[in-house]
């Protein structure tokens, strides 16, 4: 029902989709179920970039908030949200934090960007207000301020990029502070995977819980275009789908629908969005879904960990790989304090791959050789390996003035 309403809304209000439906002789009244969506065209990031304002379904003066994508891949896209869209966005995060065992007694420290047109920042903030939780807005980076606030205000939960938590642990250790003695019990992990495809914690998450066994990690996955999060419950068996807010499909290279457990590209259709709703938008993210009931009691489908981004596929020295494979090798080294992986294109048009690492101890002499061996074994090719001091690597993660520290920088 919500899907049919959204389709009728697009047919009435979206210049972009009106044109698509007209050119392709589509009558949206014929689309009644999720399976029928297969008769409609996909929307790509390129479509959204080229025709950005044709997606707006309301008069310009109804736009309350102009969010933008982070621009990690190509030019940023603007997503205009109405006041109702913002209320919907907050509701989505209220439900998400609840799913991740959050409640009114929790105090969340937000270790992320809250301005710079970053939709997720205000979404978390609005959702937590609705939850009745306390909020500490520290923003991204600034390890000293993060640690000081943890000690003074005693939050019970963090929202952060997991590699930043790894940096926080290293920093706390340097200060002789044991975070296991702190008030924190939950970390909602954004922006990076914390699990392997079999739902076991990946090397990065294991590195965190190995040093900090008192916390439980929850993964949440979202993006500006989705205006909706998929968040894990305490069982950690994938991000729960919110069926009243979004429709999703997983498709193969040929665009055909895949079944539960099969990995393909995630395609989404927003529900209940007024400003810039998207229809069959190809996210570029590769994952699988699962439909067995969850031990938490919820019966909604769950999205498995993102195994890679279609556009981030690296073709290097005759091998194809995703950045996550490189992260997994690097994260398995306790001796590495921080790293950044950079892909670029050579003058010959081939991909170049550079890995810059900071070691915890500068006198760890056998490290580069052992790391080279592990990379060679894990990737079957050896990237250019550079060693740099920790502050230089952390600064590199914030390169290009991005809103989120990133361990993968794509210059191709
Ligand atoms: Zn569950």
Automatic annotation (TrEMBL):
Residues 58-270 form the AMP-dependent synthetase/ligase domain. InterPro entries: AMP-bd_C_sf (IPR045851), AMP-dep_synth/lig_dom (IPR000873), ANL_N_sf (IPR042099). Gene3D superfamilies: 3.30.300.30, N-terminal domain of ligase-like (3.40.50.12780). This is AMP-binding protein. The lineage of its organism: Bacteria, Pseudomonadati, Bacteroidota, Cytophagia, Cytophagales.
């Amino acid at each position: 029902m919500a899907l049919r309403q959204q389709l009728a809304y697009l047919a009435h209000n979206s210049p972009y989709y009106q044109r698509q439906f007209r050119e392709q002789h589509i009558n949206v009244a014929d689309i009644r179920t999720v399976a029928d969506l297969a008769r409609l065209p996909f929307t790509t990031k390129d479509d959204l970039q080229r025709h950005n304002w044709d997606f707006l379904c309301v008069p310009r003066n109804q736009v309350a908030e102009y969010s933008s994508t982070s621009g990690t891949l190509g030019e940023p896209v603007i997503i205009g949200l109405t006041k109702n869209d913002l209320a919907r966005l907050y509701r989505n995060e209220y439900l998400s934090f609840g799913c991740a065992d959050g409640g009114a007694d929790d105090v969340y420290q937000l270790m992320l960007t809250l301005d710079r047109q970053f939709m997720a920042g205000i979404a978390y903030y609005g959702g937590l207000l609705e939850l009745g939780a306390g909020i500490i807005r520290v923003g991204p980076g600034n390890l000293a301020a993060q640690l000081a606030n943890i000690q003074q205000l005693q939050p019970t939960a963090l929202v952060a990029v997991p590699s930043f938590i790894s940096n926080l642990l290293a920093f706390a250790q340097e200060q002789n502070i044991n975070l296991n003695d702190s008030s924190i019990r939950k970390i909602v992990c954004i922006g990076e995977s914390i699990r392997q495809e079999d739902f076991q914690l990946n090397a990065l998450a294991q590195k965190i819980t190995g040093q900090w066994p008192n916390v439980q990690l929850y993964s949440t996955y979202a993006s500006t275009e989705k205006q909706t999060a998929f968040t894990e419950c305490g069982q950690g068996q994938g991000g729960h789908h919110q069926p009243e807010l979004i429709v999703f499909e997983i498709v193969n290279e040929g665009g055909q629908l895949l079944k539960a457990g099969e990995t393909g590209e995630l395609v989404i259709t927003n529900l209940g969005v007024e400003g810039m709703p998207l229809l069959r938008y190809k996210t570029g993210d590769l994952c699988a879904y699962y439909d067995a009931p969850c031990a938490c009691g919820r019966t909604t489908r769950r999205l498995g960990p993102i195994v890679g981004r279609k556009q981030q596929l690296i073709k290097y020295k005759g091998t194809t790989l995703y950045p996550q494979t490189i992260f997994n090798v690097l994260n398995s080294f306790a001796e590495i304090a921080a790293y950044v992986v950079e892909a670029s294109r050579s003058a010959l048009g081939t991909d170049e791959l550079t890995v810059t690492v900071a070691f915890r101890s500068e006198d760890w002499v056998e490290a580069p050789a052992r790391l080279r061996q592990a990379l060679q074994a894990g990737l079957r090719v050896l990237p250019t390996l550079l060693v740099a001091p920790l502050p230089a690597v952390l600064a590199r993660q914030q390169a290009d003035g991005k809103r989120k520290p990133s361990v993968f920088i794509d210059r191709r």
